[in-house]
Amino acid sequence: MKNLGFLQKTAALGLSAFLLAAFAFPTYAGSNKTNIDHITLSFDTGNIEIGSSEKRIEVTSGNDNAYTVSNEQAAATNMDGERWKSGITPKFNITIKAEEGFKFDTNALKNSNYYTLNGGNVSFVRARGGSNSITLTVKMPKLKGNAENLGVDDLNWDEYSGKASWSPADTAEKYTVKLYRGSSLVTQVETSATSYNFSSEIGNRGKGNYTFKVRASAWGAHGEWNVSDDLYVGDDELPRFGGGGGNPGGNSSGRGAWLKDNNGWWYSRSDRSWPKSQWEFINNKWYYFNGSGYMVTGWVQTKGKWYYCDRSSGAMLTNTTTPDGYRVDGNGAWIQ
After folding, report:
1. I want to staple 186 with a disulfide (CB 3.0 to 4.6 A). Which of 106, 125, 179, 295 is the partner?
2. Residues 49, 134: one domain?
């Protein structure tokens, strides 16, 4: 029995020694990994420019045996919209993996001196990670638009139609156009075309000297404004443009003018004021204007009653059935 006890104790000690050796082995193996004391990367950023939709840059490792770049690419983190714009500083994230048998220096990997970044005019922003993986963020210089390629010229009027036109700029994304009557701004529009018809705006504002200004833009960069010659519209010419407005697209009331911008129609009284949050009686018809002064169409509720304003002209309907099947009385109120 004594011998049996001795054997059991010996077996237990042997098993313990074996388990300790087994658990110690991974730590021992990990400590044998070769330390990566520096990372060198090369970049190709040639596709990153204003107007480009490219979101990735090419990245190659300087030592594929010790570490590799995931997909050999870096992904953009701050593209504003679908294309790069002027004034943006492009930033990219890169994932770097240590190969088997190697490890990154966790004490140094957050330091810019740990990296050599070649080509692409990129610079270090920050890094985070551990001994096996690093996420590195780099940036390019701020993108600057070239206004020299955004010049607009050959501004012309079609004196019969009121269409303004100009020659295209080489790299324009869009054009901003301002219409003036004398020195007063009538309206401002944006278009991707190289012309815009101001017939209705001229007809609504009335006779006078008209000019337009135009400039090209490309993803945040702007060219210089260019100004057209005068277009004179007198009593004889005015009918070609609709004759000045009494209602949207209609004849003049003599009391003011209908005007339109990107937000909709509004009415300028003869004293240059305009109705807001109220009804206005214009050319024997009632129109309703919201708090910003724009004409409202469809159903309008005021003082507890519902009224319907025609969706094409804006005029309040009376003594009829609305397009959606409701009756309104002689005052325009919904008959419930």
Report:
1. 179
2. yes
